[in-house]
Recover the amino acids of this structure.
DNA sequence: GCCATAATAGAATAAACGTTCTGGAACGCG
DNA sequence: CGCGTTCCAGAACGTTTATTCTATTATGGC
């Protein structure tokens, strides 16, 4: 067995993720990563591959965590309206916490989707996954009589997803937490 | 009087705008502009200044047109709900028309706002301007009794603006026109 | 027709970029 | 202790970037 790594692979990946999230792909140079992560150039290449691969790895990690979080938050016997309200509020708190870097997926959708097929596919898959989670939770609520059966769960789910996209952009560029929460609450009136 | 320009200044600016809109600032190199606009490098510098200035000029032009369009569309005696529905539908049609380049302001908010103070200020101003237009139209509707007076026009306006942001991102990365319109219609239920 | 002026085309420049190469240092195992 | 392997620091490479320089061409008023 040879020399051991002097850094924590997952931890550094998270740091890279936050850098990409705050600055975007193109605006984050490899030298920025080397400087701010405190890991040598060659070690980064050895560990994560090139810049694009590193970005995608970080993005996938981010999405996995996001999906996990959503699944956990939706798995709550409380009334849907309350569940979604808490979910949106927490998302806004998280996005506005450290200087409003927004959502890495949204940032990727805007910066990379048009000219990167992988990102485009990932965005589409992720969107469908979230919509699916939302829709099934909404269907369950319908079965419990919490919301009207006349509403289309998929349309509602998609609308809520689109709302998240909007709030992420606003949080990144405008970043007024209170008005974001107000908007989220208005959006959730669609459930009544 | 010396030699005359061989290109139309406004027309080329619009072409540059569309390039920036489709690819973003960083992903559009100056050589791309030279190649695709059919105007020489030096002429571009002479006419519009450097790349950043050109971008901002294009963005301002885009915003002026957008505000004009909004003002014109809202200046309609029809019921608010109908007016906003038509406005959203037209916006979606426009954004999804030529390969879903999304909205230049939204793209700028995501790509540039975090590290460019000018863009950040422009985004904030523009957001307030649109919110103001929406809010005053909603207030007028309240006076005419079209929507309940209990609702806060500014909160509603802000929510509608956030909805536009979300639809722009979705149109750019996902680009399914029909579900976007469905979402817009759901969002407008907030007026009832 | 000439001259000042300004537009154009393309070479040139300097910096930044992503990536790879080189040399040496650190570690586990025999 | 060395031997092989892996890690690391920094130099080096070739490309791309934004911007400027140079030279040429075209134009309108005298």
């Amino acid at each position: 067995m040879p020399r051991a790594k002097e850094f924590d692979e997952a931890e550094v990946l998270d740091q890279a993720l936050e850098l990409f999230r705050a600055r975007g792909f193109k605006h984050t140079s490899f030298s920025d990563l080397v400087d701010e992560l405190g890991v040598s150039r060659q070690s980064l290449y050895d560990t994560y591959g090139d810049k694009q691969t590193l970005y995608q790895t970080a993005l996938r990690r981010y999405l996995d965590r996001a999906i996990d979080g959503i699944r956990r938050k939706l798995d709550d016997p409380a009334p849907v309206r309350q569940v979604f309200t808490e979910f949106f509020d927490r998302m806004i708190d998280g996005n506005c916490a450290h200087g409003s870097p927004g959502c890495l997926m949204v940032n990727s959708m805007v910066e990379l989707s048009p000219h990167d097929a992988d990102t485009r596919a990932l965005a589409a898959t992720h969107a469908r996954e979230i919509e699916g989670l939302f829709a099934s939770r909404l269907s369950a609520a319908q079965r419990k009589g919490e919301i009207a059966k006349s509403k289309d769960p998929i349309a509602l789910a998609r609308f809520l997803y689109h709302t998240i996209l909007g709030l992420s952009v606003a949080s990144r560029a405008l970043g007024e937490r209170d008005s974001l929460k107000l908007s989220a609450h208005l959006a959730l009136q669609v459930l009544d």
Q: What stands out?
A: The first helix of chain B runs from residue 9 to 23. Chain B touches chain A through 46 residues (CB under 8 Å).
